[in-house]
Q: What sequence folds into this?
């Protein structure tokens, strides 16, 4: 009896190995029908992060071209935030430390208080957090643009099924975006266990072909 | 059965061996822990480790030990300007926490100064200073 149970367990173990776990692709999807050589092809079009134009802590212009072909984690914060931001940043340091020097991985932290968070302040904040300013960037745009990017770009994609309006901007979410600009997961940046999960998912995404 | 009886006796012994002042201290500490979590832990983190070079640690902080008697003022008035903690300088302004009553301030200071310094600082030490105008 015991033997039979262990063999079932063994089987279950190996069965899992055969089945490679992949991350879901979040957001709405559409189809595109094309005719190639007389054959009809239907392709799925996934929702991606819309184009953006922001400035980083060093005054460099950062657009979707800057992250082309790279996976990245995005978050929204402000430097004077006394509530969840410092906890999120503590967790983001973990993410940064793990993938430091990886040319295909970035972190984009967007300030939602651009009036107070000047470039000089962001630069100081970045340096004090231990960021190199290249792999982990602190981005600033005008307020409307940033909110629109957050709500209609990142969070709308991440939570397309949710009926809740707005309010995500300061939700503590860390959003994982793949090299094709598609959202692959949202994690609570104030919860160490969820960030463990994010780290596992980044590894999974790295192995994706 | 013997084990149970022994356990009961041991528990009773532990409870009765606490003096009144120790029980008061335990109550202060547990209130203080709650207040710390709600008012301080977001920035200084639950374990008191702070945040990189941005927010100073409380855990084993030389600044905290040296300025223990100023803690009530720091909490209620906030702190600005550059300070040096364990060899690093910090410049971010700490916001004042003004909604605590006297008892809460006492419990919070008691907790912070027992939990985080390398050697716990007792109330009779940090309450002694005449500089406690915030008290």
A:
């Amino acid at each position: 009896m015991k033997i039979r149970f262990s063999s079932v367990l063994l089987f279950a173990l190996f069965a899992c190995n055969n089945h490679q776990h992949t991350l879901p692709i979040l957001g709405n999807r559409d189809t595109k029908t094309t005719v190639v050589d007389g054959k009809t092809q239907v392709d799925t079009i996934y929702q991606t992060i819309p184009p953006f134009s922001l400035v980083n802590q060093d005054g460099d212009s950062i657009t979707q071209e800057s992250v082309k072909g790279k996976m990245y984690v995005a978050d929204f914060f402000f430097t004077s935030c006394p509530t969840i931001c410092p906890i999120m940043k503590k967790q983001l340091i973990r993410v940064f430390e793990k993938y430091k020097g990886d040319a295909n991985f970035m972190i984009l932290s967007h300030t939602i208080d651009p009036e107070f968070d000047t470039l000089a302040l962001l630069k100081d904040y970045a340096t004090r957090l231990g960021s190199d300013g290249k792999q982990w960037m602190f981005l600033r745009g005008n307020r409307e643009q940033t909110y629109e990017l957050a709500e209609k770009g990142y969070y709308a994609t991440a939570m397309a099924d949710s009926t809740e309006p707005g309010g995500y901007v300061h939700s503590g979410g860390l959003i994982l975006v793949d090299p094709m600009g598609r959202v692959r997961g949202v994690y609570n940046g104030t919860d160490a266990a969820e960030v463990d999960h994010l780290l596992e998912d980044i590894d999974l995404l790295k192995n994706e072909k | 059965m013997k084990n149970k009886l022994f356990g009961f006796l041991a528990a009773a012994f532990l409870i009765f061996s606490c003096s009144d002042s120790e029980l008061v201290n335990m109550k202060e500490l547990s209130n203080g822990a709650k207040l710390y979590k709600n008012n301080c832990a977001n920035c200084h983190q639950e374990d008191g480790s702070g945040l990189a070079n941005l927010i100073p640690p409380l855990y084993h902080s030389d600044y905290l030990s040296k300025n223990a008697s100023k803690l009530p003022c720091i909490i209620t008035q906030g702190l600005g300007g550059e300070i040096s903690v364990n060899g690093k300088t910090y410049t971010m302004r700490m916001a004042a926490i003004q909604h605590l009553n006297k008892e809460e301030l006492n419990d919070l200071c008691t907790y912070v100064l027992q939990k985080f310094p390398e050697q716990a600082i007792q109330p009779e030490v940090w309450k002694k200073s005449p500089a406690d105008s915030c008290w």
